[in-house]
Amino acid sequence: MAITIYDVAEEANVSMATVSRVVNGNPNVKPETRKKVLAVIERLGYRPNAVARGLASKKTTTIGVIVPDASKTFYAELSRGIADIATMYEYNIILSNSDKRQDREVELLEDHLGKQVDGIIFMSDSITPQLREEMRRANVPIVLAGTLDAEKEFPTVNMEYEEAAYLATKKLIENGHSNLAFVSGPFTRDINRLCKKVGFEKAHEEAGFAVNPEFILETDNTYDDAYNHWCEMLERDNAPTAILVSNDELAVGILNAIRDNKFSVPDDFEIICFEHSLLARAVRPQLTSVVIPLYDLGAVSMRLLTKLMNKEEVEEDKVMLPYRVEWRASTKEKNPLA
Amino acid sequence: MAITIYDVAEEANVSMATVSRVVNGNPNVKPETRKKVLAVIERLGYRPNAVARGLASKKTTTIGVIVPDASKTFYAELSRGIADIATMYEYNIILSNSDKRQDREVELLEDHLGKQVDGIIFMSDSITPQLREEMRRANVPIVLAGTLDAEKEFPTVNMEYEEAAYLATKKLIENGHSNLAFVSGPFTRDINRLCKKVGFEKAHEEAGFAVNPEFILETDNTYDDAYNHWCEMLERDNAPTAILVSNDELAVGILNAIRDNKFSVPDDFEIICFEHSLLARAVRPQLTSVVIPLYDLGAVSMRLLTKLMNKEEVEEDKVMLPYRVEWRASTKEKNPLA
DNA sequence: ATGAAAGCGCTAACAC
DNA sequence: GTGTTAGCGCTTTCAT
Known about the structure:
Chains A, B: This is Catabolite control protein A. Chains A, B: Global transcriptional regulator of carbon catabolite repression (CCR) and carbon catabolite activation (CCA), which ensures optimal energy usage under diverse conditions. Chains A, B: It comes from Savagea serpentis. Chains A, B: InterPro entries: CcpA, HTH_LacI, LacI/GalR-like_sensor, Lambda_DNA-bd_dom_sf, Peripla_BP_I. 2 copies of one chain form a homodimer. Chain A has 338 residues and is α/β, with parallel strands linked by helices. Chain A has 3 domains: 5-48, lambda repressor-like DNA-binding domains (434 Repressor (Amino-terminal Domain), Orthogonal Bundle), CATH 1.10.260.40; 60-159 and 294-321, Rossmann fold (3-Layer(aba) Sandwich), CATH 3.40.50; 161-292, Rossmann fold, CATH 3.40.50. Helix content of chain A is 45%, strand content 16%. In chain A, α1 packs across α2, α5 packs parallel to α13 (294-309) and α6 (102-114) packs parallel to α7. The termini of chain A are far apart. Chains A and B meet through α4, α5, β2, α6 and α11 of A and α4, α5, β2, α6 and α11 of B. The structure holds a DNA duplex (16 and 16 nucleotides).
């Protein structure tokens, strides 16, 4: 049996209440007593039982993080931002992968709530009505990170994907292209369908020419799928000459398809993508990218969550983080966005 | 106040013991009663409190995972393997980053133990004596994943890095090289210093020529550091012509240094690296790699941990997973290792 | 400054 | 098959 607060109390000739005070840094303890208790704690190797503490205090200093797939760099980076701030505020993290399955998401939400987490950071492709319902029922704060909440109902930390897509597309158009493609991950992801794609379209609209629906490519978000899609594209005689890509991995697939087929980037094709992970810097030419502030998305989400858990006043719980564009060699001109 | 088992009991006109039985799937409940209770649970939206359950049962169905940096693909992949098997056995995961700081590792171990995790999976560059002491004191099983335990004291799941390094180096020597380099991450990582480096040296010994200590390069494990190191190397007139590299990221740094300086891989330099993440496939030429079975390392570790937590008989708690070599274009011949 | 005692919500004997 | 009851190891009033 492990050492309990009771053992310490007995050994130190004080009540368990006093031991509890010492452990919790309550100032109402005579320095002498504190010292004595601390010595016993050390000697006995007492380690407070967080589960008992959680039951008594109704706080677990643990938060839940639900993420589509923590092994993807996108979410891995984001989670690291969460983790660092969580550490700073002394929270532990229960991390779960939903694999984007809505039933899993609901299950995990239930599961985390059952574990009495003090708050949840949630990432998902889309907040479905059922999920929304479930989230409303939660008795702890939930923050959406890098996730679109179409109803603007929950606290959210995100960036202006639509604007970024619009500006990037506009830049490509200014570079002389009139035949552009948008290669995306699944449109089940709201950010792809409702933000990036829309920005892409708006730039077209403004420029006065139409988006060719054949050149809106929905992939399964893998390197290989993008590679194959673009190999097929290259066989057409009207292949687009500029490409806005949803993320690094897809962009590298396209880049390699282009280069393996002896075409050149940026001479034959210009590419701008989202994310800018190491992958975008490691390939040649390096990829011009809208840099998604992944780490900060996570860090700010967690910071917001701490405030919510503390019931602090929060001036604004829909936060948009700034992004920047990293101009590299997959585009011809290295001018900043106008 | 949330709904408790007591509320359900009252509402269903049964005792809380019966509700507990229903919730826990105990067969000793009349089907009729079960149905009634289930209906009330549903109606009231009762959700069992896992903290209370944990206190009463002394099991939390939560395990701790301590990892140097979950945002690195290496550990992200590995953690995903852990997570999937954990889900399968209905465990939650508390995930923490140690950033390889020994004091943090000790702290986190204490912290997780305090949270009453049922077991721990630990990843680290090196098991120091203090850490070892701490791990011995733990009252729950601990499995080391992808981590060298020089004393072979704890359950471990890993692969034969030394052998792989030896075979890869041997292959490079067979390809005609006599001037080879080993570019490594920090030697504070046991696997680098005690396994890969040793394999590299053994192949030299066997071939009858000496390792040039100047060509054992210890980097800080970043793309940029490797890139810079190799740029300097290229200015020497005796630069090595074959390179064994500790991981993909470093290898890509070297590859780019070589190519940016107008040399060719594999004509001027041959490269074999460890890991084979997407990065190794995305660059041109693609990198010949010793494929580390990251996902499986995690999955097998977790499976082993479940057995240990269940106090099942385990035939062997030092597991070595098989690896394979992916022959790509950074080496001249694509023959399998003899 | 310290102690006594009542829970927190559940599990697990034990009794019927 | 079901109920009663004693904890699990803490926190937290409330006294003193």
